[in-house]
Amino acid sequence: MRNILNFNNSWSFVKDSAIPTSAPESCEVVNLPHSWNATDGQDGGNDYYRGTCTYSKAFAKAELPAGEVYYLEICGANSSADVYLNGEQLAHHDGGYSTWRVNLTDKLGDENFLVIAVDNAPNETVYPQTADFTFYGGLYRDVNIIAVPASHFDLDYYGAPGIKITPEISGNCAKVEIEAFLTNANEGDNLVYKIFDKEGGVVCEATLPSSETKASFDIENVHLWHGRRDPYLYSASVTLVSGDTELDTVSSRFGCRTFEIDPNRGFILNGEEYPLRGVSRHQDRLGVGNALLPEHHREDIELIMEMGATTIRLAHYQHSQYFYDLCDENGLVIWAEIPYISNHMASGRENTISQMKELVAQNYNHASIVVWGLSNEITIGGSTPDLLENHKILNDLVHSMDKTRKTVIACVSMCDMDDPYVQIPDAVSYNHYFGWYGGDTSMNGPWFDKFHAKHPNIPIGVSEYGCEALNWHTSNPMQGDYTEEYQAYYHEELIKQLYSRPYIWATHVWNMFDFGADARAEGGENGQNHKGLITFDRKYKKDSFYAYKAWLSDDPFVHICGKRYVDRVEDITRVTVYSNLPEVELFANGESLGKKTAPDHFFYFDVPNSGETKLEAIAGECRDESLIRKVDTFNEDYRLKEKGAILNWFDVEAPEGRFSLNDKMGEVLSTFRGKMIFMKLMAKIMPKKKKGEQASAAGFKITPEMMAMLNGFTVLRLTSMMGMMNVNFTKEQLLDLNKKLNKIKKPKKK
Description:
Largest sheet: 8 strands, parallel
Helix content: 10-25%
Shape: globular
Structural class: alpha+beta
CATH superfamily of the largest domain: Glycosidases
Mean pLDDT: 94
Strand order of the largest sheet: 33-32-31-30-29-28-27-34
Number of helices: 12
Number of strands: 46
CATH topology of the largest domain: TIM Barrel
Low-confidence stretches: none
Strand content: 25-35%
Distance between the termini: 80 Å
CATH architecture of the largest domain: Alpha-Beta Barrel
């Protein structure tokens, strides 16, 4: 029978080294999962180590479980890796997020020395290479040794489990096809197929010759998998039998369900409209990187469930099998995708194909997955014939491998609605940040109305939207201030606009958790993207988390916003309360300030601010408390201070009626003098272009759509973000630019 030995313990880790042929004299002994960028990939500067590191260990064959064939199983090595056994290279793999296996059998000796060289260095063939997250290097998931008989279920096909289960629903019945994949089966061997209910009882079974690798069963009165309401799972197993001897077994859980993505009614599960309202998730953690333990995955699921989400977009790559299992069990509807992201590489096509094959083959049986994501923001530099052909190939590949699910893309905001790229997949979603990266919050809903009117037969969704918040606070929140109060306001507005449009097939907040992005220098804490509803360490739920809980969760609660914003200067201060109950009463030092109802679940109270005030909100049986305190001057601990910033916004000289670094690019460029200043500036930092060639910066084409987005940034904010594209300004350059802007009068508003 199959034996699996976990091989996580006691690896010799050496950073930036040649391939060792014996145990290294100087090394760090580590247990897996492990990432060498758990610290430097989260501290800012875009200087985390990207190169080759080696993991090695010696072992005796006698230490392995009994078997005739031995495979090394690697569940995640970012982003390329080579396997060496006893000095001989056995395999190379490109793609840092999937499972892959290496047959060790013929090269095993009595004593063995195994090396896995992992490389996350930049290159032009393996995705991702350009993206707003850290590409953590390491063996960051499990490594196993699988021992099997000579006749066994396939271990070579794209890391797949060797069993493929396809349920098809007809009325109250499910026709379930089980396909097994065999290696070296002998004549006379049999396959024993079984389907079990959730309690482990046998529902169907059959014994067939090993040549019949497909079997069909009917489940009468089938129990459907119905999302969070009823995530019922069956399981299936196939056992290879020779006479009375069981040689090998594979098994998998599965769910029986139907779904549609309707351009007018949204997502439909088992014939019922089932709004997909949820979040995106990156898999990393503070101080851990991608090297997550099971308890980390469980905590993430529990927090997402507490919020009431019905869907997760697992961005921007294949996640752990354990996490997909948790999604199956909890009834979360999943968007799964490959890291074909941001910058199309003409030399990366084969890698998109291999990563897609692995994603689909390894995850086919998961009931939670309904769409396969082809790419994310890939047209940021514009569409090209090669890019479009790459997507058509991927789209056809997915449909040939999986006839039960849909394909989807996540379009960058400035991607034209009529771009042929938008016509390729079965469904489309857009990444829009109106109200954060330019524009304002009111633009979101109307944009989707326009798309829906223009393309009434294309299902449209929201794959990303959000804004950043840290522990900064204000009573006058403004776009770009990174305060918890602006993030709460932003999400209140987006909830009301997006959730009221039933044709939007899915909405995914960017992001459930803050995550590592070492190139970022924003918000006063470098090296992170702070758009999460929860902090990177999962310790603090920002107020916006509770805005979603008020709309999505059925568990009664009440939450007073602004708990970290204690010191306030105004005599009357606005206090917001979130609850999923119909009525909230707020007390200040025991005195009722009245009861309020709010159909949108957002309750606003004007509170007298004098001395120290204990606030208590009561909704039904639920209570919450907070504290505010009157102060004469604003507490500077609440004001954004950029960590290591060249210049902070409040240090910028901004004369009345004159432009400064604190004004938006679009407003500056609307003037002739402003346009001339930036033409000269861009000429210095952008590469020279040939005649007729489109302008570009950091590898991206400067399209009209991109300029429309950039126009919404303040000049200072845009210059700081350009650091992510390795375009850096000195303090002297910024002050000189500000002086030039100060000389330009602002046009009078009409």
